[in-house]
Amino acid sequence: MFEGLSIDAKSARALESAVQSGRLSHAVLLEGGDAETRLAAAKELARAIVCTGEEKPCGHCRACKKAQSGNHPDIHLLQKDEKSAFIKVDAVRALKEQAMLLPNDGEYSAFIVREAQFMNVQAQNALLKILEEPARHVHFLLTAESKAALLETIRSRVTDFDLGQSGALPQTQEGQAGEEAAAAVLRGLCADEFELLCACAVFQKDKALLQQALPAMELILRDALLCGSAAQPMTGETALALQLHRTLTPQKLLRLREKCGELLAAVRANANQNLTATALSALFYEIKERED
Ligand SMILES: [Zn+2]
Predict the structure, then answer these.
(1) N or C: which end of the chain has fewer CB within 10 A?
(2) From the CA of 107, how far away is ligand 1's center (Å)?
(3) Which residues pair with 140 in a beta bridge?
(4) Model confidence over 12-67: pLDDT tens digits?
(5) 105 Cα to the center of ligand 1, angstroms
């Protein structure tokens, strides 16, 4: 199994032995390594789950051949669509309905949730309900940068395997003003409402800056969520990420990431609409203060 994939040898052996002994958990999380490797490993596991041969995946049974051509009816893939920032709850509900049906071909079906950290809070809660009472024939294979990016309740339901060191994205010089403004907003958020309002004021007449700052905020919030995990930070704001990690719960960090994605889409769609500094800071502050 996993030939040609650069994944941690210990994790590969553990997964292979779970598969061959028929003891693979019904909810597996593959974390670490790079995103393509995680997906390839999840697909290999899905093939092994549907394979009817001896040494799984055998590569020559009918199920393996269908899986290799990407046409196995019992291997499903849930992923973020290109237009949205998140995997939304509707997609998870659709998956739930599919997961309740018996497999078309064989004994088992496999559901891959690609980069599960893109599920928003609602979607994660919906998935949790499925993971709590999984049907006997269903296997869930989640991939994620790190389990630290998922809600604790999801983490407690999955058996996780670390595929290796995550690769950090190369730093770019572009949009440095946006990065600085993003950091100022998040520092303000950690401090108080007045600091936050002051930091938001720069966007009032500069929507281009806001368009640069929102993705930068999302990355810093991601680093905050992943603090203490093996994942490499994607921004230079490690001290700020740690401060956010200590100040805000994972749920709040997730909601803030979600809000950044929503605001970015809104700003792009209504290029003429001005978002006031007061409205912007109120949106963030509300998330900080709201009960989980
Ligand atoms: Zn096979």
Answers:
(1) C
(2) 13
(3) 27, 111
(4) 999 999 999 989 999 999 999 899 999 999 999 999 999 999 899 999 999 999 99
(5) 13
Using CA atoms, how far apart are residues 264 and 268, in angstroms rounded to an integer? 6
CATH of the domain at 152: 3.40.50.300
- Is the pTM higher than 0.85? The answer reads no
168 occurs within a structural domain: no
Identify whether 212 is part of a domain: yes
Question: Rounded to an integer, what distance in angstroms lies between the CA atom of residue 124 and that of residue 75?
Answer: 21
| Residue 51 CA, ligand 1 centroid: distance in Å | 4
SS3 percent helix, strand, coil of the chain, rounded to 5, is 55, 10, 35
What angle separates helix 238-247 from helix 207-225, to the nearest 10 degrees? 70
Q: Which two tokens stand for residue 264?
A: 């970015």
CA of 49 to the centre of ligand 1 (A): 9
Range of the domain at 251: 176-289
